[in-house]
Design a protein that fits this description.
Length: 106
């Protein structure tokens, strides 16, 4: 679980990661603080060799299917990196549009 606050953008919310023990699949959910609603379905995925890959598909305003991939890597006991990329051409090209480096507080 993680809380994200970006006061400069008026943005905050909470990430929630859950492991389905029967399927051995992680789901990554987001709760926007403004709406209080849990995004469903969560991005499903898992970890291989210390890197987490979580996938989801969405439809944009032009009715195109967009594939999203969130990547958790550089994981240590005190830090990690999260990246979000998207593709609207079935994964031939990817747009890297959000990168965050996380540090544990406390």
């Amino acid at each position: 679980m993680e809380e994200l606050r970006i006061p400069e953008r008026g943005f905050s919310g909470m990430g929630l990661r859950l492991l389905d023990m029967q399927r051995h699949v992680w789901s990554d959910f987001w709760v926007n603080a403004k709406s209080g609603a849990l995004t469903t379905p969560g991005q499903e995925g898992g970890f291989v060799n210390g890197t987490g890959l979580f996938w989801s598909d969405d439809v944009d305003d032009g009715n195109r299917t967009v594939r999203y991939l969130c990547i958790w890597d550089r994981i240590t006991p005190r830090s990690c990196r999260w990246r979000q990329v998207s593709s609207s051409d079935d994964g031939r090209t990817w747009l890297h549009h959000w990168i965050m480096d996380w540090q544990r507080v406390g």
